Amino acid sequence: MLTSERINAHDGKLAMAHFYVAFIALALGGTAGLLQTLVRSGEFNLPAAIGYYQLLTVHGVLLGLVLTTFFIIGFLFASLSKTAGTLSNKVRLSGWIGYWFMAVGTAMTATTILLGKASVLYTFYAPLMADPFFYIGLALVVVGSWISGFAMFVHFAKWKKANPGAVTPLLSFMAIFTMILWLVATLGVAATVLIQYIPWSLGFVDTIDVLISRTLFWYFGHPLVYFWLLPAYMAWYVVIPKVIGGKIFSDSLARLSFILFLLFSIPVGFHHQLTEPGIAPSWKYLQVVLTFLVVIPSLMTAFSMFASFEMYGRSKGATGLFGWFRKLPWGDARFFAPFMGMLIFIPAGAGGIINASHQLNQVIHNTIWVTGHFHLTVATTVLLTFFGIAYWLIPHITGRVLTKAMNKLAIVQTIVWVVGMTFMSTSMHFAGLLGAPRRSAFSTYGESAQAIEWIPYQIAQAVGGTILFIGIILILVIFVNLAFFAPKGETEFPVGEVADQAEKTPMLLENWKLWVGILIALILIAYTVPFIDMIQNAPPGSKGFNNIL
Ligand code: HAS
Questions:
Q1: pTM, to two decimals
Q2: Distance from Cα 325 to the centre of ligand 1, integer Å
Q3: Whose alpha carbon is nearest atom 65 of ligand 1?
Q4: How many other C-beta atoms lie within 10 A of the C-beta of residue 295?
Q5: 387 CB contacts (<8 Å, ≥6 apart)?
């Protein structure tokens, strides 16, 4: 299919349905975020009926779970439709069934939070307990995403059958890998929700094994962050080279980095549990080593992006080490927003490496440093790239164009976002180093002597939060314009071509059974023994899974 050719209108509708939910979640979750930073500044009290943790749960669930999952699934469907052909009616119908499962699940979960019956934050750690409908809603979201995931696999299998021996189009390859990662990861959260939380919240059992629930959550929670990151990498590897007018540096390198993400992103959940008793240090050590391995595909991505930029710059006559920099299309929001995401990922990734370093983790764990880290990663690198995708994908689907005025507004939006996040996240990192806890309302520590030191940083966070809220209003204006009001016209779905001098892609990279096999082996190595330990040594009154079997 030519890049100028529009994806099938019915496939586009399915993708758009996902984007509507994603942007509504952004509006509501972003408002909660603004209120949080105001509360933490100590200058603002929430109206009596709203609790701080209720607000924080709305924010985390809507932005961390709903916005991301809906946007990503919409984007993956659109990418498959573009590069592996129009979805069959059955696949599309399954996509809609998955969508409605997720939408109903989201509505159930959101209602329990708004009614104040599920102020358990997005990680819903036991022993905090929510209304059973909160967990059932989450389960429906996961099941819905599985239905969509299997629909994508069926679509891909059909393509494979029709093209025996052919190398899968890069964007489709990446979409399928992202979905495999999601499916394997969500097994952990589905297990804890179905086997532990739902029976416990319904009163069928009295106790819950906290360590097992947290371990299953983080088995899911870390690959979750790469489920957010990989669609952004899809855009960086495949879309950005086309947008700047260049070529993909290496098809093989892009595929290898996705394979490495699949292998190393799952058996690393313990790096979120480094301070927890009940897990032997040797197993934590193993997972820290694996965490450092998952940094490698990001370094490969950085290398690949620099190479694409440099190749393009030199083809336009750039000379010297950084001459290419000036040749990049700075006035094009489809490039500028993701590029700023890449730039921010450099300090964000460095922060991640600090978090993963066992001893340094003791300094920052449970401080607001961690909140600063994930606002740089998911809320800037990933989100700015998603905005960059929206600038061409929404008009591509709706048959409209991004006007010059909207492009300018999108550039302003990106600058506003980066400035707001620089204020907010930098001050979070500093306050975290001074010991400021994450997830705490001002009232819980406002009087302590140590807290006085944090006040300037908390005010800076509120300033940043306010600027970011302006950024949210701007992106919503652009989204509504592109969905409903922009002038009619044709917008390209940019799919890059591989550079002529790149090596041929080895078929080994297409050996799905091999990679999934290694993944299963790594998960078993990293988790089997610690898990048996947890069940055998479960505290009295909570006998691992036994209490419900
Ligand atoms: Fe993280 C906690 C370690 C990446 C998200 N992380 C979190 C939480 C979230 C999160 C949400 O080991 C909090 C969970 C909670 O609620 O408790 N993280 C890492 C490591 C990486 C990492 C090692 N995190 C991410 C990404 C996220 C994300 C990506 C979301 C999308 N993280 C941790 C750890 C914790 C943690 C611990 C637990 C802390 C605790 O104690 O609670 C790595 O993957 C990072 C590798 C990245 C790089 C950067 C490469 C740079 C690139 C850009 C190139 C730029 C270009 C442009 C080309 C090495 C690719 C350049 C242009 C120029 C002109 C210069």
A1: 0.94
A2: 25
A3: 343
A4: 15
A5: 337, 410, 413, 414, 475
